[in-house]
Amino acid sequence: MLCIPQQIVEAAHADICGSLFQKVVREAIASGVDGYDAETKKSVRKAAHGLRLNRETAMSIASKAVRQIFINYIKRARAAGSRTESAKELKKMIAFNTLVVTQLVEDIKGESSDASTEEPVKEDIDVTTEDEEWDSLQTLKKIKPDKELVERLGRPGQTEITLKDDLPERDRTDLYKTSLAEQAFRQQAEVILADGQLTKARVEQLNNLQKQVGLPQEYAQKIIKSITTTKMAAAIETAVTQGRLSIKQIRELKEANVELDSMVSENLRETLFKKTVEDIFSSGTGEFDEDEVYEKIPTDLNINKEKARGVVRELAQARLKNSLVQAVSLLRQRKHPGVVSSLNDLLACDKAVPAQPQSWEVPEELADLYTIYLKSDPAPEKLTRLQYLLGISDSTAAALKDAGDALLNSAAEEENFVF
Predict the structure, then answer these.
(1) Count of CB atoms situated within 10 Å of the CB of 319
(2) Are residues 134 and 109 in the same domain?
(3) Could you tell me which InterPro entries the record lists for this protein (predicted)?
(4) Residue 410, CB half-sphere, CA atoms under 13 Å: how many?
(5) Are residue 316 and residue 400 in the same domain, yes or no?
């Protein structure tokens, strides 16, 4: 009737109905991965076919809106302060494409998906998924995925709407390589660090892996940290309490540039220091290196030195009396090597915190302890200090020494006579 050319009619139809469809698409993709539900799906299908837009036009409108969101993800990934945060943004984009854009494309084309169009019935299932992975999805924070969501994440994403015409090939390649390198490194690192134990040998293995996949060292360290933080704390706590992690191993890890301070809490490092000092006071050597205990070990563990001194004083005072009790107990059992070790522990505690002479209800047992230690051929300064701690006078000490010498001479004469 108006004799308007068909081309102009189609253009006007595409303009008016395209605007309406564009609004529907934007609302659909803005709803996020957990908002693209049965109602949204129905709305998209109704608009795509009810507005009588041809598939090419509908896909063009959808592509423009989707690519804008893709670009926003890329911008945030580039602006991220760390490689880990950048990777999270790329993961969000992948999840968005899989869970939202793929469904959108299917609905525009009128294709049926594997998932039911009805509202899914959620059921509690045990899904082993790291919290960090789900927290990286903006709309899935602090929730566990239901069965349908897990299935949708496992489906391949659409590949029709891409950033091929929006980003130079070099930029797309760099993003892909970065994502691929991190993914490859993380997968292998998860296997290597399955038990959360980061030994020197494993550090070397991870360093070689990092070079193989072409991932910069600082980014590899962040991935290692993200893996070990969730696994290592409990493993280290168990290792410390069971005595399987020594200060020597800590130093080896530090030499391998492992940032233990950020992986191991201060409380655990203080626990390790206490365990190390306890080992020194029960080593049976009688040695106590002030510079090692008061300076080097606290520095290696990055703990407060004054606080460390307090721990040493407390342990030394408690252990000193216990060492005397243990030495007497072993004396009564006639376990002389154990007596010597316990007396050495007493001397080590005394080196850390100089003590007063110890009292005992049976003085003769203190003399026996001194005699046994005397026979172990100790260093003169150790013997002198033990004499003081056991409250043995110089005359008594001389008498015990003479008695010991006489006993040795008598034993030697008997041996010669027998021969």
Answers:
(1) 22
(2) yes
(3) TIC110
(4) 6
(5) yes
Give the whole-angstrom CA distance, residue 156 versus residue 348.
67
Choose the weakest-confidence range: 17-26, 200-209, 211-220, 287-296: 211-220
Dihedral (Cα; 240, 242, 244, 247), 10-degree rounding:
40
- Is the domain of 324 the same as that of 393? yes
Full residue range of the structural domain in which residue 372 is found: 279-407
- The torsion defined by the Cα of 73, 79, 82 and 85, in degrees rounded to 10, comes to -20
Q: Count up the domains in the chain and report the number.
A: 3
As given in the structure block, the two tokens for residue 61 are 């409108």
Single residue among 264, 288, 309 that ends a domain in this structure = 264
Q: For the chain, how big is the Rg over CA atoms in Å?
A: 37
CA distance 396 to 379: 19
Both 142 and 247 in one domain: the answer is no
Whats the size of the chain, residue-wise? 419
The whole-model pTM stands at 0.50
Verify that 212 and 144 share a domain, yes or no: no
Q: What is the pLDDT of residues 278-305, one digit of tens each?
A: 999 999 999 999 999 999 999 999 999 9
